Amino acid sequence: MDRAKKSRKPVRQQVTKLCNEIEAEIATGVPYRQTLLDLLKKLDVASTKFINEDDKVKEAMLDDDVADVDLETEADDCEKYQDKILVAERIARNGITPEVSNQIPSCSSTPANNGTDHTKSFKLPKIELRKFNGELKEWLGWWSQFEKIHVDTKIHDSDKFQYLLQAMIPGTKPLQLVSSFPQTAENYGQALDALKQTYGRESLLMQVYIRELLKLVICNVSQKEKIPLDVMYLKLESHLRALKTLNLAAADPATWLFPLVESSLSVETLQAWQRSPLSKVDGKLENPPRSCLDLMMEFIKNEVQGQQQIALAQTGFQSSSSGKDGKNKRHRKSEDEEYPVTAAALVAGDVKKIRCVFCGKNNHQSQDCFRAKKMSHEDKLAKVKEANVCFRCLRPGHIFRKCKVRVDCPTCEKGHYQVMCQEKKDGDSEGVTK
């Protein structure tokens, strides 16, 4: 009996492989007729071998006088494989298109190629299942292809779940989200709903493409990067077509105004907005309904009123500073005004922690560096270029031509600090020579 089962095992594997190939061909949406015919012929031969091998196993079990329970289990197992073969044959025949007649028409008959025959006479390449990586801009294209598998009633939900897993790029968050559900037919709908709720919400996708349009506007205004006209046209067409697909015309104006308002807020305000309970409220359920833009404007109003209340509470309770403290504060203020803070300096870190260009320490200004006084002018210039700072004020974030700091050298009366004065260095050298 064991020998008969061992002989039947490769036949069963061949049957399973052919059934899976038929299902995969049907799942492409455009199955090729000849491929299905070839698979059906192979499946017919394999099913005949399968029946013969099953009969041998049953005879061996009867010869060994096995229990009735084992015979029933074997019969149920064989019936499952027979059902699988029948299902594969049925879906393959349903996917086969009628064959075109090969008869040559007579001279009196109407020509066959009259524009009404649309049957393919060539084999198209197989469409690979598109994989989703979690990028919101990739959702529309991915869902357009996978939706054909989702709405196909001939594919079981458990198989759809496997196709869904295969349609995710390994190591990405979408795959982690889908894999968190047990891979059963009952959980397929829940896994797909969770994926659509996370990446496929129309309001979210609209905001993505509206922000892409805003990026083009900001790039054009700032003139940091000049986009060629043909590239600009392609990007505009792509984003506008995506918005048209999402039916922007029928959407609430607050949906496309919300990204404009949100982009104008600072990072601190946006973080406070995300922590606010108003950002979690579904305004559609209220009476009267409120949009996400209404909720954000209410939050901003509350923030403004809160700042006014804090300023009012602090007024009149601040102790007056001593003359020395006031002098120090005015001195620090004048220093802050002398060295304006740039956007690049803020991105790089705290302004007070800017290191000396020449020695790398942060306990003094670059123009007061003692080590720089012993360096040659060429070494100082090399340090300034290496640190990518302004030659005039020795601060990062801008170049010499755009520097707004007023600096006068006491030696040559030019626009730089004394530490960068070449004439002073030459005078010292002459004095040493004499």
UniProtKB/TrEMBL annotation:
**Keyword Metal-binding among UniProt keywords:** yes
Q: Where is this region: Disordered?
A: 316-338
Check the record and name the Pfam families matching this protein. Answer: DUF1759
Protein's UniProt name: Gag polyprotein
**Do you know which InterPro entries this protein is assigned to?**
DUF1759, Znf_CCHC, Znf_CCHC_sf
Listed PANTHER family: GAG-LIKE PROTEIN, PHD-TYPE DOMAIN-CONTAINING PROTEIN
Q: Does the record bear Zinc in its keywords? A: yes
Please name the GO terms that the record assigns under molecular function.
Answer: nucleic acid binding; zinc ion binding
Q: Which domain of life is it from?
A: Eukaryota
Q: Which UniProt keywords apply?
A: Metal-binding, Zinc, Zinc-finger
Q: What organism does this protein naturally occur in?
A: Folsomia candida
Residue ranges of the CCHC-type domain? 390-404
